[in-house]
Amino acid sequence: MTHHGSTDQSDEILATRADFVPTALNTDSDDRLLTRCVDWQTAMRRAIRDPDELRRRLKLPPTAVRGNAANDFSGSLDGIEGGINFPTFVPLEFLNRMVAGDPCDPLLRQVLPGPEEQRQDPGFVSDPVGDLRSVAAPGLLHKYPGRALLVVTGACGVHCRYCFRREFPYHEGGGTSDRWDGAMEYLREHTEIDEVLLSGGDPLTLVDASLDRLIGSIESVRHIRRLRIHTRMPIVIPQRITRALIDRLSRSRLAIWFVVHANHPNELDEHVLDALRRLIDRGIPVLNQAVLLRGVNDDADTLVELCRRLVNHRVQPYYLHQLDRVRGAAHFEVPVDEGRKLIEQIRKRLPGYAVPTYVTEQPGEESKTVVG
Ligand SMILES: *Cc1c(COP(=O)(O)O)cnc(C)c1O
Q: How far is the CA of 367 from the centre of ligand 1 (A)?
């Protein structure tokens, strides 16, 4: 994929080209050429929302048993035990990094719904990490001392089938302009909080104007010193990292940290690495968290390659998460003992700073729990 230069001017190039991309060219063979030519909001609109469409584009046979894909029971089974409405959402930018014809592609496995999601596995629940018990104000989770997390939006740049917030009641709290008033009041009252995390969904699905307003409100709380942006957008739709966005973040009085989310080295193509480089070059540190996933990254070679690629590009591996036991994701689980052995193996092959901390999240604890 070398058909576009990766200069600092790429934002402007993208912005102008987006104006005359003919949508009629949106066919299989043209995807690869077009994905870098559209702005991030167009990329969101063009994302694939149908599992069979995903299969078709990857030259895979359609779902074997019709009616088993997660999308097919949205609505009718909604509210019935195990019937979860979590539609497919895969940007073409992410699709393009998958290998056509490979049903076991590690990126495809993260996003393609399957009949396994309907299994009822004991211990796999709708709110595996106790988010709802930690709601301090509408949209604000306060679990850990000194830092609080804003669930900014339910929208995301990709729907990962193992998402621990796949059943989060995002709509509660409304979408009005004063919806952060309660959260801001809580932050103002709690002077021991010096860091705010933006999460979701994905906070970078907000348009710049909304993000600007939200960051402005947080900046107005004197004792907040750091803003941490938890986002998968630089990985799935890297053109979201525009010059305007970086400019706004650089102007902040807050120390900005990025935590991105990549699980497999194939996710880190040149466009992604370019977006991360542009953040880091402007002084914004970038950390990565990954989830240990069966059939995606549950072998030492893959984890070593992921971490090596990250540190080669100055991104620090932060956490390797044990899977949160959310309903519908049991087929992704790797036992903790196996995870520990993997960490032991990769520790021998990587510099210390390239080894992520292997953690689980236990509801009720005051921090993540280190397991290896
Ligand atoms: C994971 C999490 C954090 C951040 O934890 P760190 O260990 O500081 O990365 C903060 N708030 C909530 C609610 C979390 O789930």
A: 7
Q: How many angstroms does the Cα of residue 194 sit away from the middle of ligand 1?
A: 13
Long-range pairs, 330-333, Cβ under 8 A, ≥24: 330/116, 330/119, 330/121, 330/124, 331/114, 331/116, 331/119, 331/294, 332/161, 332/162, 332/291, 332/293, 332/294, 332/295, 332/296, 333/294
pLDDT at 63: 73
Q: Which residue, by CA, sits nearest to atom 9 of ligand 1?
A: 368
Q: What are the structure tokens assigned to 72, written together?
A: 């097919």
* Euclidean distance between CA atoms 67 and 245, whole angstroms: 42
**Could you tell me the pTM of the whole model?**
0.88
Q: What is the mean pLDDT of residues 21-33?
A: 44
Strand order in the sheet with 147-151: 135-137, 140-144, 147-151, 195-199, 226-230, 255-261, 286-291, 316-321, 357-360, 369-370
Tokens coding 353:
């700073």
Inform me whether the pLDDT recorded for 74 exceeds 80.
no
Q: How far is the CA of 258 from the centre of ligand 1 (A)?
A: 13
User: What's the chain's Rg over C-alpha atoms?
Assistant: 20
Which segments of the chain are extended strands (E)? 135-137, 140-144, 147-151, 195-199, 226-230, 255-261, 286-291, 316-321, 357-360, 369-370
Confidence at residue 31, expressed as pLDDT on a 0 to 100 scale:
52
Residue 174 pLDDT greater than 90, yes or no: no
pLDDT at 293: 98
pLDDT digits (tens, 9 = 90+) for 205-259: 999 999 999 999 999 999 999 999 999 999 999 999 999 999 999 999 999 999 9
With a Cβ cut-off of 6 Å, ligand 1 is lined by 134, 141, 143-144, 147, 149, 197, 367-368
Ligand 1, atom 15, lies closest to the CA of 143
**Which two structure tokens, joined as six digits, stand for 158?**
């990709």
Lowest pLDDT segment from 9-13, 146-150, 270-274, 303-307 = 9-13
Expressed in angstroms and rounded, the spacing between residue 148 Cα and the centre of ligand 1 is: 8
